[in-house]
Design a protein that fits this description.
YHJQ-like (chains A, B, C, D), homotetramer, Substrate Binding Domain Of Dnak, Chain:A, Domain 2, Csp_YhjQ (chains A, B, C, D), Four-helix bundle copper-binding protein (chains A, B, C, D), mainly alpha
């Protein structure tokens, strides 16, 4: 029901949702310090939620997915940068970058 | 933790989420016909999901709530119009309009 | 479409969802220390998610809401106890207890 | 952070969430008739939501995932049966069965 490009974007969104949720709620909480610094932690949780929502919009088949994908690309790019700044978050950086790139295409 | 205006917007989002979800999954499914016309039904479910997400972003305390509120205002306005067109959906029209207005302010 | 008792339970679930999400992502993250202790923080986020899901099941109108309400009552009761142990979380304790009580009735 | 068995269950839950959401909101809405019969459609949406929640609980790392997985296994089994009854839903039947089996193990 979805194009190959959209299917691939749904996968990228769900992969990023999984990584951000799991890293925040396990790695970050266990490490503490910078990892639970409010702005960083909130960004990770907002990123996870936006990815989940963008995937949902594509699965529903609503044309509004273009707008959620645009916002998702923006949050993911910001989250990738912040995870890189803090360090020891390579898996999250990669998932956020891949999702940002994929959502950027869907938003166009 | 939220301003009075934000608290009021969270309430408007959750009220619209409740109304759209409940109307779609009960009233619309029972009525059938125009009520389960794919574009209309998808719009109602997209509206419900966007309201839920916007409320979540305000509760998280992320500055990205401005973007989700902007998109929420747009979907709610569209959903209000479509529910009005179909008719017999006054509760939904009212909840969508109130949410659109509140989200518009938060997005500014 | 819902009974008065169910409407009241939906409200209790959404109130608890709002309080747990907002307290965890703002108060707890800002305070740190015991407030971001992994088990406590995970419990608050699990409580928020379960409340959101139970409300959703009642809005959908599925008979499975009895099972999600039963689990919601259990998590809320546990979260109330843990918030009381840590202290300075009165709003959360109250919302969790009210939700546990309301869900208990719906699960019966 | 998750065992191989849990990782596999998260995948099964998200695969079932994707299939149920997409089939309901596209295939079922387009087909109409039995496909939008209220009880069937509600079951599909409840199944999608429960799968999403169970995956979330495993990603959060809360021990309550055992309870959400138990309920998820039950809803998925029921949804598989109902999709088989209606017919022309093979992809959904397969995703629900795989998820039910995987969740059953996690709930044990």
């Amino acid at each position: 029901m979805q194009s190959a490009e959209m299917k691939s974007c749904i996968e990228a969104c769900l992969a990023c949702y999984k990584t951000c949720t799991s890293m925040a709620m396990n790695h970050c909480l266990e490490m503490g310090g910078e990892h639970t610094e409010p702005d960083h932690f909130r960004l990770m949780m907002a990123c996870a939620e936006m990815c989940r929502t963008s995937a949902h919009f594509m699965l529903i088949g609503t044309p509004h997915h273009k707008h959620t994908c645009r916002e998702c690309a923006e949050i993911c790019a910001e989250c990738a940068k912040d995870c890189e700044r803090i360090g020891d978050m390579d898996e999250c950086v990669a998932a956020c970058r891949a999702c940002a790139e994929s959502c950027q295409k869907m938003a166009a």
